[in-house]
Amino acid sequence: MRKQYRRSSRRIEIGGLVVGDGAPISVQSMTNTDTRDPEATIAQIGRLEKAGCELIRVAVPDEAAAACLARIKQAIAIPLVADIHFDYRLALKAVAEGVDGLRLNPGNIGSAVRVREVVAACRERRVPIRIGVNGGSLSKEIRARYGNSPTALVESALEHVRILEKERFELIKISLKSSDVMATLAAYRKLAERVEYPFHIGITEAGTRLRVAVKSAVGLALLLHEGLGDTLRVSLTAPPEDEVFVAYEILKSLGLRERGIELISCPTCGRTEIGLIGLAEAVEKALAHIRQPLKIAVMGCVVNGPGEARHADFGIAGGRGVGLLFRKGEVLRKLPEDQLVDALVAEVENFVEGHEPG
Description:
2 domains
């Protein structure tokens, strides 16, 4: 992985996951199941774990949802964060149920006494609190003073930070989210000058799958290039497993994380004589379970393909019903088109099996 500048931030631990202080940038997602259905929630988290999710947040809208947190926590292998809005009693219940973190804005849960109760519970169990400010939910007072600006996001976050710091609580992570990429970037830049707490980054309310993949890639790449970000979420209007996939692709493209395959495929053109689009999609799906970082090529020309993709660990190149299976540019064998995907998958799986530790 390439070394890049990272903003210096404080170290916190969320259920054993180190965040900040130069630790690898963690990939987070959020379930879209009803938390009151623990089996469905556990099943979805299991799929997210396989996809590479390292930190999971669940909505806790009421007492019934809070009562399911211990059951969920016991059944999963990644840290569990409870998303709490307004009701401090749900925060206390979530901590008692064993969650690893809270997403909670202390200014929204009432009196100083209530804040003090939540802070005391979190301090006792070393449960960090993420302050999350969203451009669409700023207070009337903040809007009146700063409008819907990057400064408004920053000042709103600092209001919540001061409440926790007044209680001498510093297990804090902060997120500033907007659907406006440049406003988000400006806000994090401003906040980085004011605090040393770790940042959770993302572009919120960005839209459907392809649209948000583009928008998040632009926004997160700008933030990460400037060293701003310790955990991230790609907020898709799609299955949460897709969020994890896009997040890793962004991190891999910047050389910040290595996980799973990097698929290299040539663009289609008038010389293509094989179903390249379907072939590339089939390979990507068939190798989605591979965690080892490997470069896989799917090329549309049997003449130039292996040479053009000689840097790939494995690949296939096809044309007019047949194709070549190759490794590091060296042809292994020639196969009918309908056997290429299976042959490539088998070759990769055999390689991975032979290189797994232990």
